[in-house]
Design goal:
The protein has four helices and 27 strands. The protein is mainly β.
Length: 432
Amino acid sequence: MDLLCKAYSNTSDDEPAPEPETKPVSYHHLPSRPSKRPKPENPFPAAVLQKRDEAPVPGRYISKRERALSVSVPQAADPNPKPQEPHLVSQPVLGSISDFHIPNDVLSSMRHKSKGLTQLSQIPEKLSVALHGHAKAVNAVHWSPTHAHLLASAGMDQTICIWNVWSRDQKKGRVFSFHNAAVKDVKWSKQGLSVLSCGYDCSSRLIDVEKGLETQNFKEDQVVGVIKFHPDNSNLFLSGGSKGRLRLWDVRTGKAVHEYIRGLGPILDVEFSIDGKQFVSSSDVSGSNVSENSVIVWDISRQIPLSNQVYAEAYTCPCVRYHPFDPYFVAQSNGNYIAIFSSSPPFKLDKYKRYESHGVSGFPIKCNFSLDGQKLVSGSSDGSICFYNSRSSVLIKKIKAYQQACMDVVFHPILSNVIASCGWNGEVSVFE
């Protein structure tokens, strides 16, 4: 049986299976086709004639192309065939993604501050830009680290929008519809002008923003809910999904190089440590009544958990974030607070301090630190944006942004007084 399988799998020519009524044609006695015109003595290359005289291998599948050669006059083959290129579909261009149409004051401010030291974060005062384009809820937003005037957003309407935030012309630069289900997360790559997205269609997709092309598709057997690039190697990214599977992918090969198995519930979030040697995962344990696996610290290279008893409360944590400088990380809890944990073993929970005054209420609300680490910002189920002092955990300011839940808030990578946010009502906003 193995020999037969190998024989039938050798050649297919991408043709459909032969019809049952068709009988194999012998290559030894080819019927001569009458022709009104005189045939030249040697109209075909010798290689083709030699191929026609070869005896067929017993048991080998004869494609329609070969059967056609046996009863018709073949065409001369191209001596230098070109390899078939992958089928790529370009998405329509709506506006410019360059910084040509950005006001000079914004452009000069970004260029000046990008060359200096990290600016002290400031609290945004008002809504600066309202971006409308998603038809349903927006799950995540992310600023480009290399092209700081661009913002990416992932929506439940199966689209990824690329916004040229301060453009005087069309602010919606690109809309990508490569996913055929809701998009859960989006992240900019540090290599070139590309974004990585994931969603309910059980795939993560790498998209060239400038060309509007999907360059790679990383398929999985689960809904992919979160993705995160490695901080030191942009060729690696981590994905987590609905079946509790965590995979480390290499974009150069398109394959998973590590898989982290623990029998977890759906993965809600992942976060690399600052040195890139560890990562934290958060999973939904509500169905198992066991809270010890809700937050796990992993060793990346050894693929083992360093601790699975980090968080013992009976709440899921839809978001985890490392502080950019200090040795601790935080976890957004469905108990309507943000818990604080040490980033060193045994990863103890700080029982005396946490960030409160905002709501989660079952939404996947995200939080993020400012670049200088002085402030922590979080969305809220009541549509507010909450700013905390990261050291004292005191609420500094609360801004009412949406009528429905505020899902994600991120600080600008250069301008310390600018944040971007998104809401369950489909709005994307920039405050400064």
